[in-house]
Write a structure and sequence with these properties.
By secondary structure, this protein is of the alpha+beta class. The protein has 14 helices and ten strands. The longest helix has about 35 residues.
């Protein structure tokens, strides 16, 4: 059995080498070595030309302004200038060899030129995909298929991948079926993502839908398209979906036990979108986190704070924890400021002055107007509470409080109204005797046998 396989492999290799122009004769080997030398010389020439042309092309590309897409494409092409030059030199060598000698004596150079050209085209096309991992995966796979086709090995490879397999639930599982399934399902999912992204953008541009409904519809459409893509891909490659009932049941059981948190966050996200308790654009406080909701994802909510940090809060926490929504039913937010002034100032004048000062700030609403109330007759001041309203809590509340405090300080100072310091009157009864010890004299060390009673100095 092993000897038969060895004979088949050796015969296959011999036939393939004959196809690409390498024979066991002396002349065939000689021309094969000449072609390999020409390929190496072309590669060396491409390296030399790359060092000479790349700096000049970079300076020319940097002069292009206002066209970012064109700059990105030119940068992708420039990074592959070595392989582009190699492909050009190889094709020039092929034309020269075919004009000087027989076509079969340039077969290796032609294969190298085709492989290099396919590599350049596929890598440039794949780099247009922004996901680096997907771009590399698609590039290598596409070039492998192209290389097998150029080397006349694609039919034999397909036959070999389909020659062996295992039976599982009425399905003959072969490497070829796995490859076809992965490719088909990946292509269908990619198309579903494109359609879902397009539909999501159109939904978000609709002004008739509120933000929560926009997010919910976008997620439902994407999920439905993903399910349809996977099922259609499996059906396209000939997989009977009814035969996967047991397998799907096992997956469901695994999800139930191992992915409880993931499913909980997913369901919590749907609940948040349906009941409209929070939506993109709301300003919320969760624990020590205060910020604006930037995005509601399937597993988490993205909250951007005032310092630029982005917190990813699980949807389950937004359901089970106490959440302060500053803009739930209205974006109108009230802010309170506590301050006190001297008893010498008229309370009526202080109230009118504080309301007038607060109304001058651009973020404070005129309706409802600022109000000021007396809250307490304190020990050293009359205490007031100034209240005003804003409609942009996402812009921060501490900053507007600080601004109003400064405006209030300037207004009180201009009106001659004093903000008193806390003070205490201390009454001392009877004479106080203060004894000053000699700072130069050294204190005597107290021993256990000879102690000094408090208040009675020891006699010399």
């Amino acid at each position: 059995m092993m000897s038969d396989i060895a004979i088949d492999v050796s015969g296959f290799v011999s036939n393939w080498l004959n196809q690409i122009g390498i024979t066991s004769t002396y002349i065939g080997l000689q021309w094969a070595m000449i072609q390999l030398a020409i390929i190496l010389a072309a590669f060396a020439g491409a390296l030399v030309l790359e060092r000479w042309t790349t700096p000049r092309l970079e300076s020319a590309i940097r002069g292009i302004k206002g066209q970012p897409q064109l700059l990105r494409i030119l940068a992708i092409v420039l990074r592959r200038s070595r392989w582009i030059l190699l492909a050009v030199l190889l094709w020039v060598a092929v034309e020269a060899m075919q004009s000087l000698t027989w076509i079969s004596r340039s077969y290796l150079i032609g294969i190298a030129a085709k492989l290099c050209t396919a590599w350049v085209i596929i890598t440039i096309a794949s780099r247009l995909i922004r996901n680096r991992f997907m771009a590399k995966t698609i590039g290598w796979f596409a070039w492998s298929i192209a290389a097998l086709w150029i080397l006349n090995l694609l039919p034999q490879t397909i036959t070999g991948l389909d020659s062996f397999g295992v039976e599982m639930q009425g399905i003959r599982l072969t490497p070829l079926l796995v490859v076809k399934s992965v490719l088909t399902v990946s292509a269908m999912v990619w198309m579903a993502m494109l359609v879902g992204r397009f539909a999501d953008n159109r939904i978000k541009s609709s002004e008739d839908l509120n933000p929560s409904l926009q997010v919910l519809l976008g997620k439902l459409i994407k999920a439905a398209l993903m399910i349809v893509a996977v099922l259609a891909g499996c059906s396209f490659v000939g997989i009977d979906l009814t035969a996967l009932a047991v397998f799907s049941g096992a997956i469901g059981l695994g999800i139930g036990f191992g992915l409880q948190k993931v499913v909980s966050n997913l369901i919590s996200g749907i609940i948040l979108l349906v009941d409209k308790s929070i939506k993109p654009g709301d300003v919320i406080s969760v624990g020590d986190t205060y910020g604006k909701i930037n995005e509601l994802a399937a597993r988490y909510a993205s909250v951007i704070s005032r310092d630029g940090r982005e917190y990813l809060i699980p949807n389950e926490d937004l359901i089970t924890s106490q959440v302060i929504n500053w803009s739930y039913s209205s974006d109108l937010v009230r802010i309170d400021l506590d301050f006190g002034v001297s008893y010498d100032a008229s309370p009526h004048k202080v109230r009118e002055l504080s309301k007038k000062v607060a109304a001058t700030h651009k973020r404070i609403q005129a309706v409802p107007a600022p109000v000021c109330h007396i809250t307490e007759f304190g020990d050293s001041s009359i205490n007031y509470k100034l209240r005003f309203w804003i409609r942009d809590p996402e812009q921060g509340t501490v900053n507007v409080r600080g601004d109003v405090f400064l405006l209030l300080w300037d207004g009180l100072e201009e009106a001659g109204i004093e903000i008193p310091y806390p003070h205490r009157d201390v009454a001392m009864r009877g004479p106080v005797k203060v004894e000053l010890s000699n700072p130069i004299a050294k204190p005597k060390r107290q021993t256990s046998a000879k102690r000094v009673r408090a208040g009675k100095p020891e006699a010399d």
